[in-house]
Amino acid sequence: MDSAENPVRFTGIKLGPPKTVAAGIPAVVSSMRHILEEMNAFRGMKALLELNQKDGFDCPGCAWPDPDDERSGIAEYCENGAKAVAEEATTKKLTPDFFAQYPIAALGQLTDYEIGKKGRIAQPMYLAAGETHYKPIAWADAYKIIAGHLHRLSSPDEAVFYTSGRTSNEAAFLYQLMVREYGTNNLPDCSNMCHESSGVALSESVGIGKGSVTLEDVHEAEVIIILGQNPGTNHPRMLTALQKAKANGATIISVNPLPETGLMNFLNPQTVKGMLQIKTHLTDIFLQVKINGDMALIKAIALLLLQEEEKMPGSVFDQDFIAASTQGYENYIAHLKTQSLPQLMADCGVAPELIREAAQALFHKKKIVACWAMGLTQHKNAVATIQEVVNLLLLKGSIGKPGAGTCPVRGHSNVQGDRTMGIYEQPAPAFLDKIKTVYGFEPPREHGYDVVNAIKAMHSGRARVFIAMGGNFLSATPDTLFTAEALRNCDLTVHVSTKLNRSHVVHGKEALILPCLGRSDKDFQQQEQQFVTCENSMGVIQMSKGNLTPVSTHMKSEPAIICELAIALFGEDTRMPWAKYMQHYDHIRNDIEKVIPGFDDYNKRVRHPGGFYLPNGAREGRFNTYSGKANFNIAPVQTTPLAIDEYMMMTIRSHDQFNTTIYGLDDRYRGVYHERRVIFMHPGDIAAAGFHPGDMVDLYNYHGGKERVAYGFIIVSYQIPEKCTATYFPETNVLVPVDSVADKSNTPTSKLVVIKIKSTIINK
Ligand SMILES: Nc1nc2c(c(=O)[nH]1)N[C@H]1C(S)=C(S)[C@@H](COP(=O)(O)OP(=O)(O)OC[C@H]3O[C@@H](n4cnc5c(=O)[nH]c(N)nc54)[C@H](O)[C@@H]3O)O[C@H]1N2
Ligand SMILES: Nc1nc2c(c(=O)[nH]1)N[C@H]1C(S)=C(S)[C@@H](COP(=O)(O)OP(=O)(O)OC[C@H]3O[C@@H](n4cnc5c(=O)[nH]c(N)nc54)[C@H](O)[C@@H]3O)O[C@H]1N2
Ligand code: SF4
Ligand SMILES: [Mo]
Fold it and tell me: Quick check: 15 and 671 in contact, CB under 8 A?
């Protein structure tokens, strides 16, 4: 097995019934267990007490916002936030002895779970060409190697600079400045695989690539539609917001191929009611769509709304809003009228009576919030589907007013902030103009590589140096073996990382691992403790200040690493005061304020407890599109033809992982314990194919005439629509074709991979 892949090693599956209620006491127990496995109780409590507090550190987990008002004094976090902290704040560390003991080939034989449990990277490590082991290296020598490679390239466009979404605003701003002064826009980021489709869709529809709602809007909404999202696992504190909305009378409609536990019922462990086992029922109407059935479903609902509106004009649609603030209404209505309701209902796979019930719930409501995540964004027609959701909101006038709007729920804790800071391969001309005015150099104008194009460029030799500010590029991206070839083709691969991962094992001819501080670590520069800032999913900028002593004195902060690298790279030949930036991060924020709109008085306002909101036109009903109005967009329903032995596969997260970081082997809510190599299938499909639950199978994809195989998965019978299957990423990323991407956003179609399932033949 290639060390790019997770080795096939079964861990002893145990199955139980899927849970019917999320959180509660088991969540508290799980939090504590994960913390205590990684550190002593004192360090653990110290970390948890400051997690998400106004003067503490921002949760390294997801991007769900903290409440603007009062925060709980003891537990402003969820189970998965605690796990994220446990993973980062662990006292286990990887000394040079560890790397001396393990040849890289041996590290490749570990599963992602085993790799992650090894601990924090504690010292810069270097792999020389042709060597089998990483060896310690001094920081200054590491920078020299990188600068040497970058200087030797025949064009700056032969280097790729990736960013994952944990990078702070300060580090992200400096990173893109360094990269642009060096001369390229090759700044792919995890967003390219995540909410890129939302950004593209929303920019076209409503003139801003971010969501429009605040937490307060979610609390006040009359109807909340949640599509393609599993908040119980991936944004657990969203359940608290949904609970509040329910208490205010909201109806919740969930659209998902799986009856996810967190969407159904919630026991809030932070309330007396929760402790007394009094659960809140969350979803009122569950629409179990087929994979990618969302477009057909939304159109069916819109058609039912139209029929009701036509009975009594003005009673369902917000005609004043449509007339004043939108464009394309007539064409959209004309398009809807060409659609066949029975066909749409059949295409989405949801029972007609449930679709009618959902439409009825919307008839006379004006305050609607639509939330979504990867179940919508990672499809070929993702942009169009998200725009169809926006069409629905526009019909109802449900944007730019309290209690209503768009809520793409972001993944990484600062993925939205990184974009705001200019981590983008297609920067706006206005942004580049501003850099030019402020710093006096001409930034490159040509668009750079996104993730998929970066992989292809490295594969074909057009890019030769790969540098990553965080993340796990190899395992997070599609077509693992192709991406592995791409990385191995590079002259140099560099990772600024907190933890060891598979991308360190699948490397270029030379490789560097540079250990950085995480959110929970204290960051001192010039004897003064620094803080950084982040932007959450709702556009709030807040400070984050770690409170734990770093486990090694050799680690540096991300801003310091970038500044020192820039000094090594540019010497005197630079327009930026790199040495000053790393002395005190206020200097970085002062410059962010000069370049990026919305950050006036940054240093002052961000010190205000709770931070500040960035301006957001759509939130205020101003649409910064080419027409100055919100746009209805029209796109056809797309279905995926399947042969009798083909299935659609979505790659999803278990409850015990953060992307490629595997916290544990249980998916408690779905009732799968101690095993990740599973494939969820409909019982009818299992029987029709002649399989049985528990059978071991291999999964195949043949996109573009190439065979891709993921070996060794156990069939789990599950309540999932026919012809739909689910597996966990990253194990099945070997099957996601690198050139199967979303239109316009170029996001890999990780939620719809066409597969064949074949019995595993032992000893093949
Ligand atoms: N604990 C934890 N928290 C996380 C993460 C993590 O890995 N672990 N990851 C973070 C990141 S980077 C992100 S982007 C978010 C991801 O958050 P989610 O988007 O919630 O993550 P996924 O597991 O990819 O889940 C997608 C959901 O969409 C559903 N789905 C799949 N295909 C379709 C479809 O075609 N239509 C519909 N309607 N639904 C579909 C799946 O059943 C699943 O419930 O979470 C963030 N938070
Ligand atoms: N098949 C499939 N593939 C997917 C997805 C899917 O749903 N299905 N989801 C996609 C999505 S939404 C995303 S966002 C991407 C995620 O892609 P990435 O962001 O590249 O992956 P992560 O697993 O989040 O990265 C984890 C690594 O980041 C490093 N790290 C953690 N904290 C820090 C820090 O503070 N600083 C630095 N410098 N490094 C740190 C650690 O070394 C850790 O091993 O994966 C995508 N891939
Ligand atoms: S909801 Fe997200 S940000 Fe909040 S504590 Fe949980 S993991 Fe952290
Ligand atoms: Mo993400």
Answer: yes
